[in-house]
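User: Here's a chain of 354 residues. Predict its fold as tokens.
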Amino acid sequence: MAIYCHGRRYYFPFFGFTTGSDRSIRRKSRFMPATSFRVGMRCNGDFGLRGSVMTLPEVNTLYSTDDRCRELLERLRWPEGVTCPRCKDSRVSRLREYARYECVGCEYQFTATSGTIFHDSHLPLPIWFVAVLLLCEAKKGMSAMQLKRTLWGIDRGSYKTAWYLCHRIRAAMKQVDQPMLDGTVEMDETYVGGKNRGAGRGRGATANKEVVIGIRQRSGDLRFFHATDASTGTLAKYIRENISEDVEVIVTDEWRGYKGAVGEHKHETVNHSAKEYARYEDGACISTNTVESAFSLLKRGIIGTWHKISAKHLQAYLDEMTFRFDRRGRSDLFIDTLRHMVTADPLTFETLTS
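Assistant: Prediction complete.
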């Protein structure tokens, strides 16, 4: 069988099996025409890479069956041709049933979803695709209960299934091997959790709250971290791990912990206690407004969408928010999310709840 993708030809032999230990592979040749990322529609390019935004009606129409969804996942996972996920051998044969492959080298059988976030899921792939679109296009996120009602209605489905589905998608949104931030970098911390009535406002009213540290490069990426505290040592740790040595300036508020954490880097501060939120020096704006705008979006998600999240899973929600925030202007957000899902490791329910 010849598969044409990106103008290149890949051969995937079909075969049958014989019984016994000396199993032989009987190969048959069969032609399968290539299609675009809009599965079932022939064109000269890949729809998902041409900058067009995917909408809910399009997902329902174009990816209405498992076969169409699986074809897209195969192209996203193996853009240069199918390889064995275990031994990386490119000599693979395709079984006749269930779009399953077998490695000629190690005889491992696998599919496009094996060893990915989709692994061992009983949900139909069209349900997965709709859920991915809903989560990655919702600016302030979507709660598991809302997702359940949208996918299955009030009387069908379960909250547990929807909750697990959301967390598996969030697990794929976790960024790895992130580049160091440089240029003008803003850094601030905020506190999320319930209200401490009678405790006043500010950093003195943070008992029983969780610390979230935010770092954002101007016109660049955003990072959120669930931290144990906002001490000098903790702040210095996140600066070392995320900010380049060549950074132009780090802008923070007047919190005393930043003075020792920034170290030898150029450091500018704004005094929020004196109601100073921005100032200009030599044409440069000294403020933490851009990272605080991201904090505002996070808190709108917690208060207005999720309502209640546990400290145990807080980092997963932060990863989802930063993934979507950094890609808010991209038209291939849906396709890029699926690409992360077929390259991320599986997340079992036991691991999630342990």
